[in-house]
Amino acid sequence: MNSDPHLNAKTFSWQPNAKLLLFVLLMTPLLISLGYWQLDRAQEKREILAEFKANQESQPVGFEQLDVGLNLQYRQVQFVGELDASRRVLLDNRVRNGRPGYEIFEVLTLATSKLKVLVNRGWVQASLDRNQLPEIAPVLGQVKLRGTLYRVLKGGLQLDDGVRTVESWPARIGWISTERATEVFANDFFTYQLRLDSDSVGALTTGWPTVSVQPEKHTAYAVQWFVMAIVLLLLTINANSNLAAWLKFKIAKTESDAL
User: Fold this and answer.
1) Cβ partners under 8 Å of residue 118, min gap 6
2) Which residue, 29, 173, 210, 239, shows the most beta carbons closer than 10 Å to its own?
3) How high is the pLDDT of residue 103?
4) Parallel, antiparallel or unpaired: strands 193-196 and 142-150
5) How many CA atoms lie less than 13 Å away from 83 in the CB half-sphere?
6) What is the DSSP letter of 96?
7) For position 163, what pLDDT does the model report?
8) Cα-flanking dihedrals φ and ψ of residue 184, to 5°?
9) What topology does the record note for this protein and the membrane (predicted)?
10) CB-CB neighbours of 12 under 10 Å
11) Whole-angstrom distance, CA of residue 215 vs CA of residue 205
12) Strand pairing of 116-125 and 193-196?
């Protein structure tokens, strides 16, 4: 008697392959987990975009009017103070339109508070000669800066740039946050940095994407992972049984009986 189920199409039967089933048992939960992870990422991006829209619709306020108990991410503000161009940070490896460059950070001393504010003035193109740093005109005197509050989002990978202490200014570093600014500048900083608007005093080339990947793209990725899990299960069933032959036999028999 032949044990190959594919040669007996009249009845559905199994012929399990232990190694293949073990592989599927390991891969299926992984594919499903990746799908749900992408759905979670899509929801996170929706919340970020909703937060951005709500705070961008608010009127700009001064530092004294801010409620620090609220989520101030993307809140529009206008701060009065003096920028310190003598201690400038160049955030390295910032690419715009395929061109390498730097984002320029300076410290704002507020007119009405002892706290410092880390200010992102925007992007400048880098020279092909790494030893040549860009020349940037300083902002002199007390000015009113307009922009958006921003705190670095969690989950990003920060590579070690090897910088522990700054020995000379300007300093070129690989990443910056308000927490790291406390170490780099040896000052206490407001928990949000200020990204300047394009029409603000001191603005360079500004404009930052709210999210790098839109929620719809994450959802599409999730669908792909779920489809892959379903396809894997169907292929496994077919490889461990005579499903294809059995279905073909049933369809042929149904058509024959109908004649």
Assistant:
1) 105, 107, 108, 176, 178, 181, 189, 190, 193, 194
2) 173
3) 93
4) antiparallel
5) 24
6) E
7) 67
8) -70, -45
9) Multi-pass membrane protein
10) 15
11) 27
12) parallel
- The two three-digit tokens of residue 257, written as one number: 């009986």
- Residue 176, both tokens: 């910056």
| pLDDT tens readout for residues 172-183 | 888 888 888 888
Could you list the mean pLDDT of each consecutive 10-residue stretch along the chain, which spans 259 residues? Answer: 54 78 90 93 83 76 83 88 92 89 94 88 90 90 92 65 74 86 86 92 86 82 94 86 71 67
Whether this prediction's pTM lies above 0.70 is answered by no
pLDDT of residue 49: 81
Q: What is the phi-psi region of residue 6: left when phi exceeds 0, alpha when psi lies from -120 to 50, beta otherwise? A: alpha
At 34, is the secondary structure helix, strand, or coil?
helix
The rounded distance, in Å, linking the Cα atoms of 193 and 10 is 71
Q: Which two tokens stand for residue 258?
A: 């109908």
Residue labelled with tokens 């975009």: 49
> Nearest to residue 148, comparing CAs of 84, 208, 64, 88?
208
SS3 107: strand
- The alpha helices in the chain, defined as continuous H runs, are 18-56, 178-185, 215-239, 243-258
Q: How many residues does the chain have?
A: 259
Distance, CA of 64 to CA of 66 (rounded, Å): 6
- Residue 259's Cβ-count burial label (10 Å; 0-12, 13-18, 19+) is exposed
Tell me the C-alpha to C-alpha distance, in Å, between residue 228 and each of 31, 93, 235, 241.
7, 36, 10, 20
CA 138, CA 82: separation in Å to the nearest integer? 11
pLDDT of residue 179: 86
